[in-house]
Amino acid sequence: MSKSKAEHIRQLMATEGESVGENTRGFNTGRYESVARLEDYEGLKDQARAIKEDAIKRLPELIEEVEETVEENGGTVYVADDAADANRYIREVCDDANRLVKSKSMTSEEIEVNEALEESDVEVVETDLGEWVLQVAEEAPSHIVAPAIHKSREEIARLFNDHFDPEEELETAEELTAFARERLGELIAGADVGLTGANFVTADSGTIALVTSEGNARKTVTVPETQIAVAGVEKIVPTVEDLRPFVELIGRSGTGQDITSYVSLLTPPLSSPTVDFDDPETPLADDGSDRDFHLVLIDNGRLSMREDEDLRETLYCIRCSACANTCANFQSVGGHAFGGETYSGGIATGWEAGVHGLDSAAEFNDLCTGCSRCVPACPVGIDIPWINTVVRDRINSGEDVPQDVLVDGLTPDAETDGPGIQKRLFGNVETLAKVGSAFAPLSNWVANAGPASAVLERVAGVASERTFPAFQRTTLVEWMDEREAVPPLDPDRKVVLYPDLYTNYMLVERGKAAVRALEALGVEVLVPEAPGSGRAPLSQGMIDTARKQAEGVAEALDPYLEAGYDVVVVEPSDVAMFRSDYERLLPESEAERLSEASYEILEYVYGLLSNGAEADELATADGEAVAYHSHCQQRTLGLEPYSVEVMEACGYEVTTTDAECCGMAGSFGYKEQYYELSIDVGESMATELEAADADHVVASGTSCTDQIGDLRDEEPEHVIELLAPPQRTRR
Predict the structure, then answer these.
(1) What angle do CA 384, 314, 13 make, to 5 degrees?
(2) What is the mean pLDDT of residues 380-392?
(3) 66-123, pLDDT tens digit by residue?
(4) Helices marked H in 598-639 — which ranges?
(5) What domains can you pick out in the chain, each with its CATH number?
């Protein structure tokens, strides 16, 4: 990311952030409410994913089936190799046309068909209201569903008044909509060609499914004599019956609507007659003989993506925008920053890398923090963080990525063919932690001294505004080795407390609290030597390094798994590594074994209380109020309720935040180029915590406690620190 790009982010936060944030959070809230009303939301998601998996697996034969079906119906199918090929064909179809009207289509944005047609003197008119606003403003979409989401009503009113100079100034939403309806209606009536996209194309009947919030797409299809539909080849599904789960999911996922305003199933060529606006009384043939239909299926890198094991899932995408709406960073900057040449949001990295190349993806890839909140939001269960990580790993190689794409001095190292200084620093934080601990407290003074901070910011892009957590001279592992022997506890309850990097080298008191809490509940606790989980290098796109660390963790914990120990983890991001990411990094049997034996600390405590342990053994309260922010990956794994249940069992009244992310996201908030964005994201969480006016503010992740501490000038406790007794209860 160049320095000018960082300035661009700052500018967008100031000019577009408020509108984008308000709208995306509204969509996201609507999604939560709408999917809650579905009887079997997860089942529908499983169905949708299975259909897409099958369709992409059989894609070549489905393309052939669509060709045969549409041509039997009297239409024409053209499979375009790339954007230039598609535009050449579309220009030929429009050879005698003066005006083409089109409904919203991201695929048409991808191939830049508007520009291609205008070069051939064909007037192109966007009929979707948001797209038309942007066409008038000469801007690109900032969101794949709501393209003008970054503009307020007042901005649109000023734009229309300045551009069209109406007799009476437009002001209200009703006035703007009425003006657009009348103006666009006239333009559609005089069009020679209509162009739409397609949400889905069914192979068995050639049916085009359009899911829209406006009626413009239907007019675009039915009024002109010539219709063109453009769609990526991945939009094909086998049958009309396969549309059901997608129709149920797409509106709910994108805008929080139970169903969008218009679901149109069109099997062209249409049998309805075209409309003659000059002579509407004259009957026309009703057999569709006066219609001309062309389906342009576009490859443009998709078939190569199909063969790419890591990018293939991108093709399952149904363009609902849930990944953008749920992303805290997107909520602050929108798609003009969190996007490439065409696509925006979390899934955009896969699309941009696949259809435009790594250089486009590199412009915004680091805005994905891997928080994973998009994963449960995706209606087809795409592992979007993994796609972003893989692309980041490829960008790190420097291949096809201009050297000025990243911050000066932080570019991929051409000689070593790897990540730049900043990513190397944060990806190898385990080494820093070991050195810092060995030389504490001197290392703490040096790390946070003014001169050192200035050097780190200049050389490695570490934000000087941040204070590093203090390294501890005695690690958690060493403390456990040196402390007095503990009397025997319940032999059936024995755990390995995994010493994650922060708990072992910096937040040792948090680890001690976890040990005290578990022992108070009768559990035998061991804290063995073990390497970092690999989360740090994985977040920087250093997959090989992460894999080596994962292998080290598996080797270190294997003897304890063999002996029947459970693995308890304090840091939620490491639980996520064990349960999710290790599926990609370890052999299946090893990953499954560790996943099944691993528990987040409050999840484990909840299990103990549910099986006879007494909450009175912990630090209890009598109605004290707690404001609680749950870690992103803890929520994704469905673990947040355990913390709440345990605190309530101990007598606390708990209020939780709604903010999707604290904004810190591991190393993200420490990076100079993202510091202001990180703070902006965290402000909504901080506001909620202040409004709670609680006796205690607690969180469940290191990133969260760091960010809350910076925003509130007071470091919160981890949940386990709140609940741990002062010392182990002797039995």
Answers:
(1) 55
(2) 98
(3) 999 999 999 999 999 999 999 999 999 999 999 999 999 999 999 999 999 999 999 9
(4) 601-610, 632-636
(5) 67-274+284-303 (3.40.50.10420), 476-723 (no CATH)
Rounded to whole angstroms, how far apart are CA atoms 399 and 364?
A: 16
Three-state secondary structure call for residue 472: coil
Residues 6+ apart with CB under 8 A from 175: none
Q: Give the residue among 341, 333, 332, 378 at the shortest CA–CA distance from 362.
A: 341
* CA distance linking residue 439 with residue 448, whole number of Å: 14
Q: Which residue reads 């000059």 in tokens?
A: 278
Among residues of the chain, what percentage have pLDDT more than 70? 93
Is 481 in contact with 475 (CB distance < 8 Å)? no
Cα–Cα dist 57/390, whole Å: 21
Question: What tokens appear for 170 in the block?
Answer: 């437009």
pLDDT in tens, 542-557: 999 999 999 999 999 9
338-342, 403-407, 464-468: segment of lowest average pLDDT = 403-407
SS3 597: helix
Q: Does the pLDDT value for residue 156 go beyond 90?
A: yes
List for the chain the helix, strand, coil content (%; round to 5). Answer: 50, 10, 35
Q: What's the CA gap between 140 and 47, in Å, rounded?
A: 34
Q: Is 502:569 a contact under the CB 8 Å cutoff?
A: no
Rounded to two decimals, the pTM is 0.93
How far is residue 543's CA from residue 387's CA, in Å, rounded to a whole number?
A: 12
Residue 238 and residue 205: Cα distance in Å, rounded? 9
Position 291 confidence tier, pLDDT thresholds 50, 70, 90: confident
Say how far apart CA 460 and CA 4 lie, in whole Å.
18
DSSP 19-80: HHHHHHHHHHHHHHHHHHT-TTHHHHHHHHHHHHHHHHHTHHHHHHHHHHHHHHTT-EEEEE
99 torsion bin: left (phi>0), alpha (psi -120 to 50), beta (else): beta
- φ and ψ at 293, to 5 degrees? -120, 135
Residues 503-529: b if buried by 16+ CB within 10 A, e if exposed: bbbbbbbbbbbbbbbbbbbbbbbebbe
- Model confidence band, residue 415 (pLDDT cutoffs 50, 70, 90): very low
Listed in sequence order, the residues at least 6 apart from 395 whose beta carbon sits closer than 8 Å to its beta carbon are 358, 361, 362, 365, 401, 412, 541
CA-to-CA dists, residue 442 to 363, 436, 473, angstroms: 39, 8, 10
**Structural contact between residues 146 and 255, judged by C-beta atoms closer than 8 angstroms:** yes
DSSP H or E run through 543: helix 543-562
Rounded Cα distance, 264 and 694, in Å: 51
Q: Tell me the one-letter amino acid at 159.
A: L
Determine the straight-line distance between the first and last CA of the chain, rounded to whole angstroms: 58
Pairing type for strands 99-102 and 193-196 reads parallel
Task: Find the helix or strand (DSSP H, E) in which 107 lies.
Answer: helix 106-111
Q: If residue 117 lies in a helix (H) or strand (E), which one and from where to where?
A: helix 113-119
- Note the Cα 721 to chain centre separation in Å: 31
Q: Which two tokens stand for residue 721?
A: 């620190």
